[in-house]
Amino acid sequence: MTLGYTALVLHAHLPFVRHPDRDDYLEERWLFEAISECYLPLLEGLERLEADGVPFRLTLSLSPTLMAMLDDPLLQARYRSHLEASLQLAQREVVHTAGGPAQNVARFYLHWVESLYQRYTQHYGADILTAFHRLAQAGYLELITCAATHGFLPAYQEQPATVRAQIQVAVQVFRARFGHAPRGFWLPECGYFPGLDRYLREVGVQYCFTETHGLTHAQPAPPFGPYAHAWTPDGLAVFARDPESSKQVWSANEGYPGDPAYREFYRDIGFERDPEHLGALAGPNGVRTFSGFKYHRVTGPTEQKGYYDRWAAERTAIRHAHHFVQSRAHQAATLRGMLPGGPPPLVVAPYDAELFGHWWFEGPFFLEQVARAALHQQTVRFITPGDYLHMFSPGQGTAEPAYSSWGYQGYADYWVDGSNHWLYRHLHGAGRQLTRLANRHQMADEETRRTLNQAARELLLAQASDWGFIMKTGSAYQYAHRRVHAHLGRFGRLVGAVERGEPLDPQWLRQVELADNIFPQIDYRVFTHH
Amino acid sequence: MTGFWFIVITVALVLALIGINLGRRPQMRLGQSQRRTTSEEEPDFPVEQPEMQDEVTDISGGPMPSVDTEFAAELGAEDWSALHDEIPLPANYGEDLVVVLVRNPRSLYVYWETGGGGLAELREMLGAEAFAQTIPCLRVFDLTDGRQFTDDVGENDDHWFIHGLEPNHRYIVSLERRTQGGRYYLLSLSDPIITPPDRPTAGGSLLYQRLERQAGGVISSWR
After folding, report:
1. For residue range A394-419, what is the model confidence (pLDDT) as tens digits?
2. Per DSSP, what are the bridge partners of residue A297?
3. Chain A 246-285, residues with CB within 8 Å of chain B CB atoms
4. How far, in Å, CA of A239 to CA of A404, rounded?
5. Which of A24, A87, A242, A339 is most buried as measured by Cβ atoms within 10 A of its Cβ?
6. Whole-prediction pTM value?
7. Is B161 on the interface with A (CB under 8 A)?
8. What is the DSSP secondary-structure string of B181-200?
9. Which residues of A touch B96 (CB under 8 A)?
10. Is A26 an 8 Å CB contact of chain B?
11. How many C-beta neighbours within 10 Å does residue A436 have?
């Protein structure tokens, strides 16, 4: 008997890191690593389930910036080159480790990279999004999206035009790519503020997610806390994150990814081998960087790491998958007993998709095994929030969710901090400028339209929550700083030309359009204030 | 003995949860934790610190339309000069305003601009000498309980972090100049903003409260 439900939700997102001017930007490797370690293995696992007739339901949020990069021919070509370089290194590594204890791992990597190359270039024809869409049509995925460039929406609470633009552009992109509007919407950083629901309802979004206290602190308090959706006053279903299932995966110390059998993230031959040996995977200008070839396992709290054993790691992932399913079943039974008269409990377990594969190398395999383990019991069923809405539409009534995020302490401390606060003066000022111009130029000539469309792209790119996050963590600070400055600087030149009625240097405009080519169908009037 | 172990385990759990940032997203993302996977080194300038701290339709796949990507790929590095222009950001946006952002239930961030002419008008109205005797300040009005307080700010300040506020209260913040005699001249007023609640809504989820009790308070201890 089914006593409750679990919704596994993966949020796949990377900031727009396309740099056509050079091919040695390490930031583009964020995308390449995610394709190799996360998206392709996830697809492979789901396709194995499909081939074996194992049913499963997973929710996958695809950010518009990630979608744009996955579909971009330049980045596709560069990823292919990256794979070729990986293949060459894998072959050199098999020779290099011959007769030594690392050879088995080297052979594993050669096989792994060969498989990635074959799948990406031949099986998918470099078209990963269509592969995900096919799995959605096959019933394995519910695809949703998030804000256009992952703007932290609570920071724009007083800027309705910006909130509207982030949401409407995202929905337009999703619809253009997949042929239908998304039912669900991932709020960047789970950032919610009271009143956000009306913007989502304007474009037909039916549900979103908040952190746990988005519902437990809601007004009035939903009787079942985070274990069923509540309806906002504007008719948006809100699901909240379950803390227990999050802890089992997120926690670095007691979560699954810290098991001694799993691959160790930080030990990488990119820091050990000669640059000549690493070939194209060596960092530019002698910079040492990750190659993706990691030969050790977590082992324990020691520097003396043992060699990675894929077979042992997979056995561990299977064990963890069974534990995860049993925990959800136990949770469902417990909650059901405590919810007399309520809807069957839904445990919402959302994660960054890149956790599965990049940080936790065996994560995609774990997900596949969760589906297989779920077959052996009836207590809990894995579904999507959309499925749950179909079955138990009333949920737990109406409530106004509380301001919340899934960042540190659960609010906005991370994104409004001494390291990044200066962003908002400019992002808000630029937003007001664009809204004034959009209101003034509702029927613009071709040149003005083109200029303001590019201004809208630049502003949206500057609004990514990633930049503030990076500034706060201190990693890649200068890159984030330079990106925001570049986009806001270009924005200023573009809107300045329109305000003064002066023409732009056509070469400059052309180059900027070619570089920041996201959202080709954007209409700047999305920034109009109604 | 059982009680002893319960306490030990509970304390250990609480410490572990606090220490490991339980359930929160790790402060790491793809690439971003890896300094060495970025193109540039850390900044050589100091980083400012916090003051106080439908139905599916058939689609054929294919890439989304992009702006002449093939053409872009053919361009050499020397053809991308536009990307290397360092365009300065404006010092202000020509407005008089105060903007307040929520940080957490007890803290707000405030920034302001005085580029819209209001300051010059006040100087003209008061006269240069009298104006020089005034000092800029922020007045924080708690609209929920009717209290207010004032923070003096520096002439060159343009932002402020306000701490020690009340959760779930409605605030409004004004930028003013005050005289030694206690007279205030308003320059700009923010929109009202509500600090978030910091605890489950009273009379709320009985289920959640029962789970809390069962877990010995662990669920909320990490917040």
Report:
1. 999 999 999 999 998 999 999 999 99
2. A263
3. 246-247, 250-254, 271, 283-284
4. 13
5. A242
6. 0.90
7. yes
8. TS-EEEEEEPPPEEPPPSSP
9. none
10. yes
11. 16
